[in-house]
Specification:
The protein has about 60 residues and is mainly α. It contains 3 helices and no strands. It is extended and about 45 Å long.
């Protein structure tokens, strides 16, 4: 699969600081995200906390207080 993305100068600089190509740096970020996602599924308490946070972020806010 091929995906085209636009990356910021900050990402390009970070890749350079780490001595990586931009593609390798983005791949490492994706890998880290996948690993974190897998770990969250393996820990139900953490997964539950994440779901509660997501629910709070999407819940409507009553500003008439």
């Amino acid at each position: 699969m091929q995906i085209t993305v636009t990356v910021s100068d900050v990402v390009v600089r970070e890749a350079g600081f780490r001595g990586l190509s931009v593609v390798d740096f983005i791949d490492s970020l994706i890998d880290k995200g996948m690993l974190a996602s897998q770990e969250a599924r393996e820990h139900p308490v953490l997964n539950s906390a994440i779901e509660r946070i997501r629910a709070l972020r999407t819940a409507p806010v009553d500003l008439r207080k």
